[in-house]
Specification:
By secondary structure, the chain is α/β, with parallel strands linked by helices. It has two domains: about 30-125 and about 250-320, D-Maltodextrin-Binding Protein, domain 2, CATH 3.40.190.150; about 125-240, 3-Layer(aba) Sandwich (D-Maltodextrin-Binding Protein, domain 2), CATH 3.40.190. The protein is built from 14 helices and nine strands. Strands 1, 2, 3, 4, 5, 6, 7, 8 and 9 form a nine-stranded mixed β-sheet that branches. Helix 2 (about 45-60) links the parallel strand 1 (about 35) and strand 2. It is globular, with a radius of gyration of 21 Å. Belongs to the UPF0065 (bug) family. It comes from Roseomonas alba.
């Protein structure tokens, strides 16, 4: 039996560890990159993509543009990424809804982001905020709002059928024992406009798009959907604190490429994204009310698959299907 000296073993280990780095260095994009946002401009998805695009462009030495391809709850943009050339230049701005809800809501579409993409890294997370409209709703806290909703008919808005906004409301109503009429809008901007026009009684939208209107007094926040308070609105309680223990529905964002993308391209993109997500980018995301989230790259796909499975269970239990 040949003995392997310690120095030889260490040298071999160094070669193995260096392999991903060497692959990353060997690949460079040959043309500008696109980040596909599956919702209209102006919403939190669009904001996150544009914040990340600039530092990612610097790291890759190529322009990175944001392209909005809305429709079918995000499936149009997702399908575009999956069907694009697997050269690493077409990137999906992934969301909880795309990965965790759409395979249930759009069962016949054949689009499955968990199955068909590889994650480059998580970007951040936000809470949805349950906001009511002053002048339409008297309640000033969650318990009194539930009581009011049991006394009279209410209408709520979401950013789309089957979205995390919609499911946040579905889970809330189920746990609270109330009912309300659902009006789905095509993204955050139309929902915010409807809430400002007092077309609905309440809605769930992200801290990124709700905070300014909450601070202006146009919306009255009652609770956030995560188990910890949102850094943008530390005075707003969690659902559990406000009276619904066990409620936990956070929303995350990631970047992903089609699964058949060459390993060297994936390695280079992950490396570039890791460097792009430096202190300045994180601070810009915080300014947009998006809190950082940290999951090791090696565990990224498994973490997303687990989160997606949980959301799919919620969508399945709610029996939600596309309009």
């Amino acid at each position: 039996m040949r003995l392997i000296l310690r120095r030889d073993a260490l040298a071999g280990l160094g070669t193995i560890l260096a392999a991903p780095a060497l692959r990353a260095q060997s690949w460079q994009p040959s043309r500008p990159l696109r980040i596909i946002v599956t919702y209209p401009p102006g919403g939190v998805n669009d904001i996150v993509a544009r914040i990340v695009a600039e530092p990612l462009s610097r790291e890759l030495g190529q322009p990175v543009v944001v392209e909005n391809r809305a429709g079918a709850g995000g499936n149009i943009g997702t399908q575009h990424v999956i069907q694009s050339d697997a050269d690493g230049t077409t990137i999906l701005l992934g969301t909880t809804a795309l990965f965790g809800v759409n395979p249930i809501v759009y069962r016949s579409s054949g689009v499955d982001a968990v199955r068909d993409t590889t994650s480059l890294g998580l970007l951040g997370q936000v809470a949805n905020i349950l906001s009511v409209i002053p002048g339409k709703v008297e309640a000033t806290d969650l318990r009194s709002f539930i009581a009011e909703a049991k006394r009279r008919p209410m209408v709520f808005g979401s950013v789309g059928n089957g979205s995390s906004s919609h499911l946040s409301a579905v889970v809330f109503m189920k746990m609270a024992g109330i009912e309300a009429t659902h009006v789905p809008y095509r993204g955050s901007s139309p929902l915010v406009a409807a809430m400002l026009a007092k077309d609905v009684d309440f809605g769930f939208d992200t801290s990124a798009t709700s905070t300014a209107h909450i601070r202006s007094g146009a919306f009255r926040p009652l609770a956030v959907t995560t188990t910890t308070r949102a850094s943008a609105l530390p005075e707003v309680p969690t659902m559990a604190e406000a009276g619904l223990p066990g409620y936990d529905l956070g929303i995350w964002f990631n970047l992903a490429v089609v699964k058949r993308t060459p390993p060297e391209a994936v390695a280079r993109l992950r490396d570039a994204l890791g460097k792009a997500m430096g202190p300045q980018t994180v601070e810009r995301l915080r300014t947009a009310y998006v809190d950082p989230i940290s999951v090791p790259v090696a565990e990224n796909d498994a973490w997303i698959a687990a989160s997606a499975a949980r959301w799919q269970g919620i969508a399945r239990d709610a029996n939600i299907a596309a309009d």
